[in-house]
Amino acid sequence: MDSSVNRSRWRKRSQRNKPLLFSISLLFLLSLLLLLLLLLVSSKTLTSLIPFSPKTLAPKSKNPCETLALAGERFLWYAPHSGFSNQLSELRNAILISAILNRTLVVPPVLDHHAVALGSCPKFRVKGPAELRAAVWDHIMQLAEERRYVSMADIIDLSSITSSKVRIIDFRVFASLWCGLNMGNACFGSLCCAISGDGSLSTNSSPCRSLLSGSQDKFQPDRELQKKKKISYVRKRRDIFKALGPGSNAETATVLALGSVFSSPYKGSELYIDIHEAPRDPFIQSLIKKTEFLPFSPEVIAAGKEFAVQNIKEPFLCAQLRLLDGQFKNHWKSTFSALKQKILSLKASGPIHIFIMTDLPTMNWTGTYLEELKEDTKSYKLFTLRERDDLIVQAAKKLMAAENSLKSSFLPRNLDGIKKKRDCDRVMLPDVLLYVEETVCSCATMGFVGTAGSTIAESIEIMRKNNACEL
Fold first, then answer.
1. pTM above 0.85, yes or no
2. Spans of all domains in the chain
């Protein structure tokens, strides 16, 4: 009797408590959904300074590189842009920044000329860092897909830099180890295929792209602030060591992703991160001097010297004439005038040998000063190089076979366990004409005349100042 009464009372209490239990369960579910929503939103607003683990990106596979201990390694990633000379300028700055912050620099490939543009600073058409990095990532993936990949460290000799305390890692190796991507499509030699081709072909690159792009580090000033203060431009300069070094929030980031690190003054505007006031450390000071001139790879230098010695043979003048790109197409008169004055200043017993480096095709020389020089064979002997010349093709083959980028950078410690003879379809040979031409100009014993304002001319002047032809 008692037990039946107790059961009856228990049922009544259970029925009375059902609404309460239902409310608690509903509240718990709503809280859980809210938490998941917050996590989802926060994941979309990750900045480039948030550390992340390769385990969250790499797929589960038997990739031998998964055993690589990346603990303690901190990386620096940046977004190169514009033409090759500007990309080289950014590489110099990135080397300094990575050394100052004690990070391993991720070396990008050579981007197509102006495939990624920064924009115009004074008119506020500058891309933000996140947008810029995303554009660079997409273009790199395009280069890999189209098999047109060549690393900056293949073209530029970084051996003097890496022999010191500076650490670099090829982007292909970084993408393979960190993002789990198969970068075999971006390889030419067996070493690259062995290391970079071990990722998954089916891995989605979007998570890595998103994390390396970031979304909150704005570059341009707030437009409302501009309007309120009636000012055209606002920029705070920050000391890079204090802003991103020890004790900062950025220090804990495993991968520190920057936007442009281009610091050449442009109409009074310069990079907002200050590298001029780096710690007065002897190593940093020596590195600043080293980065002022980064030579081309030995293969490029050898090709340029070979053309100067075996083809031109005699002492010669180099003329770098930029006539078609950007603002230069409107300054033909001044460009040719400078060349005329230089030639008139030369005194020679026989015909003057001139190496012509120009973006104007030979078929379009008609009616120009170049045609006059070409037709006056008694006074002048002109020399040019073309992309399909055997010397250029052979230089490209030797360059890619050398795999300088891989041999001078960070490699997996378990490299012996990777199949070194892994086969992969080779990338196309790069166009090395520009680099060989600059080298030839550095060897011009009768002088050099370049287009005013051209970064290519500036690069050649630096090479001549540092005796690049004698390397």
1. no
2. 54-291, 298-387+431-470
